[in-house]
Write a structure and sequence with these properties.
It is a single chain. This protein is mainly α. The protein has one domain: Tetracycline Repressor, domain 2. 76% of the residues lie in helices and 0% in strands. It is built from nine helices and no strands. The longest helix is centred in the middle third of the chain and has 28 residues.
Length: 207
């Protein structure tokens, strides 16, 4: 019984991820999610009080997936710190390619998409997304702290530079979605790394 219950809830979450990521939060209704998940609508409300609550669960699952597929391998300490940042863009592009093979087109950042749509409409969703953005920035910040320590980016202020690099990533994902080309993420990633390394020679990048 427990396994069936878990399976039903998981199917709802996966359906929400697929439909909302491919389209938008506002364009996807509870009934459509239930049909996609092959779940009765009454069962939906057994697990979730609202579509927002389901979206929060979907955000958490997708974040765990991105941690495992993108962030953890990209920022592993088997390469120098600045190479980890470049690898972050490479792995993000690979994630976009994988999603495009299923959806038929590049989908961009699932959290950025949702933030653009819902941040002015739902503070609960906005706060959750903001927390995830800050967690993502922290991965970059740690790499920059290591780069500052080993001298490869000695003039960088890690917190502010991490915010800038992550903002650059979000822009790269938007560009990739607009052009339907995940390679844009890799190309722009090289430019992001160049901006960071340039800080070694520019006092403006210091504290």
């Amino acid at each position: 019984m427990g396994r069936t219950t878990t399976n039903t809830k998981d199917r709802l979450v996966e359906a929400a991820i697929d439909l909302i990521y491919a389209r938008s939060f506002g364009s996807v209704g509870v009934q459509e999610i239930c049909v996609r998940a092959k779940v009765q609508k009454g069962s939906f409300y057994h697990f979730f009080r609202s579509k927002r609550e389901l979206a929060l669960a979907a955000i958490d699952v997708l974040w765990q997936r991105l941690q495992a597929q993108v962030f953890d391998p990209a920022f592993a300490d088997d390469v120098p710190p600045l190479e980890r940042i470049e690898r972050f863009f490479v792995y993000s592009a690979e994630f976009q390619r994988a999603q495009a093979r299923v959806a038929g087109h590049v989908l961009g950042c699932p959290f950025g998409n949702l933030a653009l749509e819902m941040s002015t409409q739902d503070d609960v969703l906005r706060d959750r997304l903001d927390a995830l953005f800050r967690a993502a920035e922290r991965h970059i910040e740690k790499a920059l702290e290591a780069a500052r320590a080993d001298g490869s980016a000695s003039r960088v202020d890690p917190p502010s530079a991490a915010r800038a690099v992550f903002a650059y990533m979000e822009g790269a994902l938007l560009m990739a979605k607009t052009r339907n080309d995940p390679e844009a993420v890799v190309t722009l990633g090289r430019s992001a790394l160049a901006l960071v390394t340039a800080c070694r020679e520019q006092s403006a990048c210091a504290n």
